[in-house]
Structures are given as C-alpha cells and as structure tokens.
Amino acid sequence: MFSLTENKKRLILAFVIAVLLWGYASNQTANIFNYGEEQAASFLVDIEVRNLPEGYQIESMSVERAVIRIDYVSYFSQLSRDDITAYVDLRNVKPGDNMKIIEVKLPSSARLIGVDPGYLLVNIAREDE
User: Is residue 71 within 8 Å of residue 32, measured between CB atoms?
Assistant: First the structure.
C-alpha cells in the first residue's frame, strides 16, 4: 500500500502553493486568478458637434471622423464603437477658422490612449437672415 510520510505531504503542498503563486505573479491572461483580460483597441468614430451658438453655422470641418485608441479590461464583455463618443465643443467660437480639441467620452472601464487627429479646424460663419 502506498503511504506518504508527513514530510512528503508538506513537500507536495509547498510545491502546489509555489506553482499557484508563480501563476498569479506571472500575470498571464490565461491565469485563473485574473478577473478580466486587458485589451487594446482602435475605433473609427464620427465626430459630433456640440454647443454651436445660435446665429452661427458650420461652413466646413477639417475632419469628420477620428481614430480613438483605448485600453480596457474586459469583464466577459467587449466594448463597441457605440460605447465611445467623440465630439467638439463649439461654445466660444467666432466667425472664421477655429481650432478645437477633439474630446472623447468613454465607459468607466476604459482608458484613453490617444486620438488621431487630436484637434480639428472648424470654419464658422454667421447665418444669413
């Protein structure tokens, strides 16, 4: 009959604990201790216009879409293009060319890596009455 001594039992237990600690510390995506997997993604998103004052109209914009690069942790779900909003705030514009930063609204689980381009030129004119 096969019998383990007390020292052999401790050695096997120590080996199992060491393997589990190594797996946890290595931070591999296939590790059973990870709750979510880190993902990096890029999305081509249409740029919205917000807060255009009354009496003004947009003549032209240098770009209509932006590439949004994000980093997020997926908890059994994926982010889609619909979860991301890119916009420019035209609150304090004047007639002529205005350089505006492209702002991005993301879900709370995502982190913005970059926006390409980071800004755009908007040509504003007064509405003819």
Answer: no
Query: What CATH number does the domain containing 99 carry?
Result: 2.170.120.30
pTM for the model stands at 0.66
- Six token digits for residue 103: 């702002």
Task: State how far the Cα of 128 lies from the Cα of 22, in Å rounded to an integer.
Answer: 71
Residues of the chain with pLDDT > 70: what percent? Answer: 81
- Please check whether residues 107 and 54 belong to one and the same domain: yes
Same domain? 48 vs 21: no
Q: For residues 23-50, give the mean pLDDT.
A: 71
2-16, 27-41, 63-77, 111-125: which is most confident: 111-125
Same domain, 54 and 100: yes
